[in-house]
Amino acid sequence: MPRVCKVTGKKTQVGMNVSHSMRHTKRTFLPNLQKLKFHSDILNRDFSLRISTAGLRTLTKHGGLDAYVMSKSPSRLAPEMAAIKKAINKKIGKTEKPAKKPVHKANRSARLVKKVEARKNAAK
């Protein structure tokens, strides 16, 4: 099981121990993960999640599991959390809005070219 927080996405980092003689040896920095149960009021069931202490603060700030999951888009959530959001949306009968398509760089540059040409024509 990977050591990844389901809320913040924090995971194991790699670094070096540096001794007094400046000798470098590899080491890992583990996130402070806790296995906690959270209750969903809408679904009326408990979910067991491995989250970091920073993730716990985030859930508390948002007002619980349901509020946090509903405030984020599914693409920004971990797959496990996105499944919870999908179940909540199904329960309350809400469908997810399709995301807006970003403007392609080529279209943006084409608009700029048109603006420049329009200014040249207006100056003539």
TrEMBL record:
Q: Pull one GO CC term from this UniProt entry.
A: ribosome
> Mind listing the UniProt keywords for this protein, alphabetically?
Ribonucleoprotein, Ribosomal protein
Pfam families with a match to the protein in the record:
Ribosomal_L28
Enumerate the GO terms in the molecular function aspect.
Answer: structural constituent of ribosome
The record's section on InterPro entries has: Ribosomal_bL28, Ribosomal_bL28/bL31-like_sf, Ribosomal_bL28_bact-type, Ribosomal_bL28_sf
Q: Name one GO biological process term.
A: translation
Q: Name the family.
A: Belongs to the bacterial ribosomal protein bL28 family.
Please report the name of this protein according to its UniProt entry.
Large ribosomal subunit protein bL28
Per the UniProt record, the source organism is: Candidatus Enterousia avistercoris
- Give me the gene this protein comes from: rpmB
